[in-house]
Amino acid sequence: QVQLVESGGGLVQAGGSLRLSCVASGSISSINFMAWYRQAPGKQRELVASVTGGGVTNYADSVKGRFTISRDNAKSSVTVYLQMSSLKPEDTAVYYCLAVKWALSYWGQGTSVTVSS
Questions:
Q1: Mean pLDDT, the chain cut into blocks of 10 residues (117 residues total)
Q2: Distance (Å, rounded) from C-alpha 30 to C-alpha 24?
Q3: What is the pLDDT of residue 28?
Q4: 9-11-17 Cα angle (round to 5)
Q5: Rounded to whole angstroms, what are the CA distances from 40 to 35, 46, 48, 73, 86?
Q6: What DSSP assignment string belongs to the chain?
Q7: 91 in Cβ contact with 113 (< 8 Å)
């Protein structure tokens, strides 16, 4: 089992920055893919950014140039960060962390980000 705990959400003005963190613990060996998704009210959950075990990153077009995903591997945990800059009101959503180990997906509980105009 993999446990994911997200943090770092909050209220920020447009143009501001936030950094989200997701700590994966438990059976973390062979986690080969981690990502951030978000879900705005009334909308479907969408991929924001992802990073593979080899460090290959991918971003949604809407956040390219503004968000950066990174991954820090420790002995007993893996942390994935999402540095968000130049935030826009349309970035308002609940952000969820995903970890994929073999064919199993694990989700965090989500952290809320609200960007005021």
A1: 95 98 92 95 97 94 98 90 98 98 94 97
A2: 12
A3: 86
A4: 70
A5: 17, 9, 12, 29, 18
A6: -EEEEEE--EEEETT--EEEEEEEEES-TTEEEEEEEEE-TTS--EEEEEEETT--EEE-TTTTTTEEEEEEE-SS-EEEEEEE-S--GGG-EEEEEEEEETTEEEE---EEEEEE-
A7: yes
Residue at 4: amino acid letter = L
What's the pLDDT at 96?
98
Q: What is the CA radius of gyration of the chain?
A: 14
Q: Are 55 and 65 in contact (CB under 8 A)?
A: no
Tokens, residue 11: 């209220």
What gap in Å lies between CA 24 and CA 69, rounded to an integer? 15
CB-based contacts of 72, cutoff 8 Å, min separation 6: 78, 79, 80, 81
Report the amino acid identity of residue 10. Answer: G
